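Allow me, if you will, to draw on your knowledge of protein folds for a short while. Thank you for your consideration; the sequence and its tokens are set out here:
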Amino acid sequence: MFLIPPTNQNPVTRKGLPIWIFTLIVLIFNACGGQRPNNSKGTSGPQIQTQYHPLNNLRVLDSLPDDSQSLKLISPFKDSLNHQLSESIAFIDSPFYNTYSTGNLGRLAADYMLLAANDFAIKEFGIACHFAISNNGGFRTGLYPGTVTMRHIFEVMPFDNELVLVQLPGRYVDSLFRYIAQLQGTPASGFLLEYSQGQTRFQNQYTSVKINDQQIQNIQDVLNMQCTQPFNSRRDYLIAVNSYMAVGGDGFTMLKHATKTIYTGINLRNILAQQLKTEYNSNRTISPRNTLRIFHEPR
């Protein structure tokens, strides 16, 4: 089943190459393009002799005076960065915890991923994104009551992961839900999953999955989402993930079986910042996301 219209392009596509990646590649090639030591015999081609110049170690101590020329060079960049990091994003009344499997920070971020992915998918392909998931290790700290700045966003998400859309056949979506049950939860938006607990978490089994069947256009749609559509293992689903998970990171190896993998080029950290600002400007508050979306049956 094709959700995304088939093209002659490679299933893995990327919209543009970030300039920092290009710069890094150039630096790596320049670094690797030097002379090779002549430490082998019987090889063909010119033999290049490398000379080594040992240097004495330099001790860097707090007592050393600052170099005025260096400070003058760095100052404009430092001031610009501090200004950007001090930008106010939103004000939150309640904490968002980075708690494994049950933290509301993950649910908040997954909501924003779904919003951004849905907007991208509709514009590019004319179809909606079904749901979004992230990995528990994708967040490094929480958000706490008070003003949220861009500095806090960097602390929460220090990685340059981007939003990725995967079109996944139903049998691998089944594997995905089985894995989420074994994890006892992961940041998610767009579905409700109930599982039964085994003797160990690896024996957990999901017993019910209900997926959102309404179009997501704004933050109010996310907050009032109704997940009533039963999971159908015979169809494909369009899922929003991050670029680390898309290649099988954190055990999400089933995502590598996607029939389409679309790298959007949208940084997840920017999504979190932009959607936080949008929700706050719209509602003058940030909903705490306290309701579990992945939960186990009572024993």
In short: The two ends are 38 Å apart (CA to CA). Residues 32-43 have pLDDT under 50 and may be disordered. The longest strand covers residues 205-212. Residues 28 and 219 are 42 Å apart (CA to CA).
